[in-house]
Amino acid sequence: MPPTTTPDVLPTRISTAILNLLLPHHRTADQGPASAERFPHQLRQIADFVRDDAPVTFTLPGFPCKSPNPAKVLGHLPDQGERLSLGFLNALCTEIERIYPPGARMVICSDGHAFGDLIRVPDEHIDAYADELRTLMDHLGLTRLSVFDLRDVFGDLPHDTKRAHLHQSYAPTLDALRAEVRADDNTLALYRGITRFLVEDTADHAGTRSALQRECRQRAYGVIQRSRAWGDLIADHHPRSVRLSIHPQPIGAHKFGIRLLDAPDAWTTPWHSAALRRTDGTWTLMPRAKAAELGRLIESDDRPSHFDQD
């Protein structure tokens, strides 16, 4: 008689193969490569889809809006950095489809409205950014991607009302978050990273540097509170999804950190930078001011797109 196998052997094998496609792009501060077996949470989640012969759904909070600092970005609308990143994510779903015919879907959970008041970006810029993401997906044929934002939850309510509902329903208390920052190295790193971004994104502060840093430390707590709230709301609306993150994540964490494009800093994203095409044809991200020193500005559809290295 042929040897018997448990019903979970095939889903486990396929989920391992799918996770192996993500591992080369894992964004983490941990050292050294990690095998799929060190991500049991994601393996279980993917296997659940495989058992149902259903497309694997990934949710990725991010793509909020462009930084308000003109020294870092080319404008308030998506540009080549977003085009390349969205193309990468869609291609990743296509790779999964080659080994698992039901394929994969990626929900871009655009979180700009969740904390737009705290990062000092106008809500109309956030709307325009998310709408342009949808337009890019349509024009580029990125059929495996979609956008989800607060408008999908609260409709046409005023943005401040949406943020209030989000915060009241899901945000952790400030005391609990402060205690976590003191006790957990990863939360401390996130808090410091967001504080740094807030300082860098402030282009017109009239006071002292130390006063700006104090203010940004306070705002950073609020950003994390809203980000946590947004994550819990996503879990309610997409309860089975595999949660990705644009922030570095430890090996084996419940969120899988994913790197969108090459950058010298693990925290750099397309919405905090500009894209530079190197002379060898490869791409990297860096602040607009630095990219302008290295290359010439290229336009697309009558607006700034990226830089080509000289």
Q: Spell out the helices and strands N to C.
A: HHEHEHHEHHHHHEEEEHEE
Return residue spans where pLDDT drops below 50 for at least 5 consecutive residues. Answer: 1-5
Largest sheet: 5 strands, parallel
Helix percentage range = 40-55%
Q: What is the beta-strand fraction?
A: 5-15%
Report the strand count: 9
Radius of gyration: 20 Å
> Shape from CA axes?
globular
Mean pLDDT: 92
Structural class: alpha/beta
Q: How many helical stretches? A: 11
Strand order of the largest sheet: 3-2-1-4-5
Structure at a glance:
By secondary structure, this protein is of the alpha/beta class.
Helix/strand layout:
Elements: H1 9-22, H2 40-51, E1 56-62, H3 80-99, E2 104-110, H4 112-119, H5 123-139, E3 145-148, H6 151-154, H7 159-170, H8 174-183, H9 185-201, H10 209-237, E4 242-245, E5 256-257, E6 274-277, E7 283-286, H11 288-294, E8 295-300, E9 303-309
Parallel strand pairs: 1-2, 1-4, 2-3, 4-5, 6-9
Antiparallel strand pairs: 6-7, 8-9
Structure description:
This protein has 310 residues and is of the alpha/beta class. It contains eleven helices and nine strands. The chain has helices at 9-22, 40-51, 80-99, 112-119, 123-139, 151-154, 159-170, 174-183, 185-201, 209-237, 288-294, and strands spanning 56-62, 104-110, 145-148, 242-245, 256-257, 274-277, 283-286, 295-300, 303-309. The strands form two sheets. It has a five-stranded parallel beta sheet with strand order 3-2-1-4-5, with helices on both faces. Strands 7-6-9-8 form a four-stranded mixed beta sheet, with helices on one face. Strand 8 and strand 9 form a beta hairpin.
